[in-house]
Amino acid sequence: MATSDCQAKIDEGLYSRQLYVLGHEAMRKMVSSDVFISGMKGLGVEIAKNIILSGVKSVTIHDMGSVHWCDLSSQFYFSEDDLGKNRAEVSQVHLAELNNYVPVFVYTAQLTDSFLAKFQVVVLTDSSMEEMLHIGDFCHSRSIPFITANTKGLFGQLFCDFGEDFVVSDPNGEEPISALVHHISQGCPGVVTCLGAHSHGFVDGDFVTFSDIEGMTELNGYEPIKIRVLGPYSFEIEDTTFFSKYEKGGVVTEVKMPARICFEPLRASLKNPTISLVDYDKLECFKTLHLAFQALHLFVKEQKDLPKPRDQLDADRLLELTRDLNNQTSFQDHLNENLVRMFSYVSAGDLSPINAFLGGVTAQEVLKACSGKFTPLQQWLYFDALNCLPEDDKLLTKETCALRQSRYDGQIAVFGADFQERLGKQKYFVVGAGAIGCELLKNFAMIGLGAAEGGSIIVTDMDSIERSNLSRQFLFRASDISKMKSETAAAAIRRMNPECQVKAHRDSVGTSTEHVYNDDFFQELDGVAVAVDNIKARMYMDQRCIYYQKLLLESGTLGTKGHTQVIVPFLTNTYGTASDTSETAFPMCTLKNFPSTIEHTLQWARDEFEGLFKQQADRVNQYLQDSSFLDRIDRLMDAEALEILETIHSRLVTERPNSWKDCITWARNHWQELFHNNIQQLLHIFPPDQTTSSGVPFWYGDKRCPHPLQFDSCNKMHLDYIVAAANLYAQNYKLPGSRDRNAIQCIVDTVTVSPFIPKSEVKIHVSDEEMKEFVKDVDQQQLEELKTILADASSHRAYVMDPVHFEKDNDINFHMDFIVAASNLRAENYGIPQADRHKSKLIAGRIIPAITTTTSAVAGLVCLELYKAVWGHQQLSSYRNSFLNLAQPFFVFVQPQQAPVQKIQQQEWTDWDRFEVRGIKKDGEEMTLEDLFNSLKTEHQMGVIMLCYGTALLYARFLSESDQQEALGQRVTDRVRSITGEQIPAHLKTLVFEIVCSGEEEDLKLPPVHYHIF
Fold this sequence. Notes:
33 strands, alpha/beta, Elongation Factor Tu (Ef-tu), domain 3, single chain, nucleotide-binding, eight-stranded mixed β-sheet, Rossmann fold, disordered N terminus
């Protein structure tokens, strides 16, 4: 379908995080695609919501049915006032608010071929088999991608047919792999050997290109070559016999080649299905479900309704129909008859978490159909969550699961009324109201979590809503920008379910708010759901949940990838022990002197920004405003003290600008220092022909030999740096800047820069270890002079500086202008391929790519684990941690790891255990340290030889006899106060001590002591 230029424009501010997942080409195809979705129950609205937020051209929703009680359990835009109204018409009003760029149309008549022919993708949910077959045939004949999705209680089904010649432009969305070349042989075939401590990462059949090769230059710019992998560091290419001899250098880079996929139509695939594996523990179930879903269509056609919850006669009939289908198929398989019965028991249910999961997966398939980006599902997916049912199946009966005209009927049909009452009384703490937080809160509202008397949801988020949030945080609208996320999200879910008892906080979580989230707060909770995007907050909440022995639901996304983890007290291991919480950092010497990738230059540019425009200004202000600042400087090592004082003196005296022209002059001189002088100095110490002690060239492999740049004001990138740096420097000093490039160019051309003079005394480190061991000679006279000059800060008080805080999403504040220019100039120094603004913003801004489809799926899976926790499941095998990649699509569901057990002196401990001690004795007096030790000896046979409170040592056997006796005689709280020199915070009801006890062979570190003082 033709699309005008204005329609095809992409709002990068709105879709910024999604663009890092899909890319501009895929987005351009999406904004040209009209999507049709039939069925506006819970699953249909989930798919529509995700597609609209993602930014297709238009969405048309269709439903000829009216709102029923059962719909309210998962369709978040329905209310009791909508009962009897058309589902599509009610939904359209709300869906149209999600994205101003995506018009939402309603269609409520019978579907015709001529009507469907205008769409680029057709999606059916809750359709009859006859309708699916007819529309599937029509779409296949017209090469219109066709998707059908269904959820029934705890079961889900998805089918995709994108035609007989569907082109996938990028199968996985990953950055192309690249590796440094060590050697290329002349032969047939040629053998390429790669440098590095890690595998090259290529696989058989990959296509690659070469660049920067010296000697065998014929390969530079050569068309993509198919490879055959020989090992982790080598692979074969085509005949290189007659190419020039390889000398050195070069980069080999993967090329994504288009792939063509042929899909079977629905009619043929029903008889001979290709089923994607989801849960490897349930391999035998998928073909049974394939037949059971078909049998359900026959049942509904025959009975005019779905099987009644927990009805044995209906289950018998559905099983009979399934057996008949199995006898008719060409792949006759062993039927899991119990699975068919369970399918019958719950098929009348409609669960928000199941719809969220399958709605996210389905919506991603729609985006694949629109864009050709990522690998489509081939062709069936079946999913079940039967382990959400009680471990004792006798708890559910036909009577307890009977429908009762309640907004939770769709859930009661699966879990019963008693469970619904239990859900309503839960108290949960949600940390984060961003993308995952919004989806979790929506699901919590739909399932009625904390919606009864005595229940509650507390959500906290200290952030306000930004425009870039709107494409994936669906509880927010453009009119909500600048409002607090937690308060806006809480108000939104109250509208979805007026019974929802939700409270919004604005606090961060950490040691600074433990007076808010204190003992009383946590002891009332049933669980915590963490929806934050940083490891530090996750680790902190993990420790809090261990401390209070509370369930933790953890999840995260990265583009199309997602994970969930359920942490159950005394049953599973913790987040900290189960997850890789390390964050990688580039070596300092690499960033400072030897960058080899654009990631290195971007990190260097970000560090330059922080150092020049924030940290230096912060230090100046500390000096000006803190009378004890110089006293603290005296306690530092001389080299560090000199560096700080030099910075303060230069920013306040030698380099302090008095005018805009001075700012330009500073920027020009700084350009010269960074991109010319520093490089000249590096080459002075390590010339291009430098060799190591072993005779190997110094500039080899990942050490790129740089070259200095010559400033040219007519070079756009050179002037970009001057404009951005000068304006940021002016902001530091509260001077007016300018965007007039012509005027800036005229001024910068008048600046005279000093010629470079090499310094023989400069030391350049080639490794971080060398850098750490180096002790810099300090000019003591200069240090003392600076201390004297800066002794009186009052003479500079008028020059309080304005630190610049990095903000990546503001395109007119010069922040990204500076980083892009600085990074690319340094990349030019070292011959590194440069990055555009979009990629630079991703890396330097440390942006986490995000898309609503993954968020929806992950939040659904989290809530399935919540169901199990509310039931009180005690079997580890009932729970699942999940890992998914919707781009592939790839799903792994695994049983959580058991909490590791340590055995000490015939007793077993896990991270969840502790020694509980009541600090107040029966007579009302508090224990002394000696009383505490005696209690531990009597109750647990532990002889304490060391006691610590945080970093404070309260007692140890190596203390003198008199000090030991003094400590043992003190009340425990008095001992804490005397050693720490601080009062115990009023909100603390429990003190946590670490103890070391004497063992037969060695001293033993044991679980902590929780000493209750109230």
